Amino acid sequence: QVAIRNLMRAVDMFPAPLAMPGLIGLFATFLGPRRQRIGDMPAATCVRRHLPMVQRRPLLASASPRREELLTALGLPVRVSPQDVDEEMVLEKADVKSPTDTVLVLAQAKARAAAAAVQGNEIVVAADTVVALGEEILHKPKDAAAAVGMLPRLSGRSHKVFTGVAIWDPATGQGLSDYEETEVEFRHLSESEIATYVASGEPMDKAGAYGVQNSSLVRQVRGSFSNVAGLPMEKLQKMLGLLDA
After folding, report:
1. Which class for 46: exposed (0-12), middle (13-18), buried (19 or more C-beta within 10 A)?
2. Average pLDDT, whole number, for the chain?
3. pLDDT tens across 2-61, in order?
4. How far is Cα 149 from Cα 198, in angstroms, rounded to an integer?
5. I need a labelling partner for 137 at 20 to 30 A (CA). Which of 47, 63, 149, 206 fits?
6. Nearest CA among 244, 240, 101 for reference residue 181
7. Distance in angstroms (rounded) separating the CA atoms of residues 103 and 100
8. Which of 12, 101, 128, 178 is catalytic?
């Protein structure tokens, strides 16, 4: 696990060739997936905080151990506060269908839900990840049968992984949301390989029914490795820097 974390940090030190241009969103009002340039934000939201970012404890609005490990790799004392968000209701209300808007809306909803759990000078970090075949979104499988149905569709093909990230600083009311995109290519999988992998239980809490950290299913990752793991570290670090600017 230590080696994997170091690899993900090393990979994210370099620009992701397939990463989309940054579309920084005004998140303080939580009004939806609308994205704006940082220069379009009201001047009051761009005030520098008195507390350095290194002293801020992230409040991670997620139950994902992978996201916790990635965030801990920044050397910050992470506190975890999973949020029970009805994702289907949130998406229906927002009326979004594209992968990018989906991850942005859900990340924002999780951050909004975590606001009441903030303690002291914590800063909220929330994320949502989906796997997409074209415009079709593959969420976490609801059961083993769903996982068995997803994996053959990914076999021998490339797909994209999108992660939306939302951060919010209750001390200043500043907030940002953005997303990362990575292309993943699977090798050809046999029926027995899929059955064995599903039987291991690993696909059950992961978008697209697989985890890239321990998976032998993946042939190549083009872009941010940590994005596929659930939290694009290079993107997050840039966002934290913008929030602190």
Report:
1. middle
2. 78
3. 434 444 443 343 333 322 223 233 233 333 333 322 232 222 222 233 334 445 789 999
4. 10
5. 63
6. 101
7. 6
8. 128
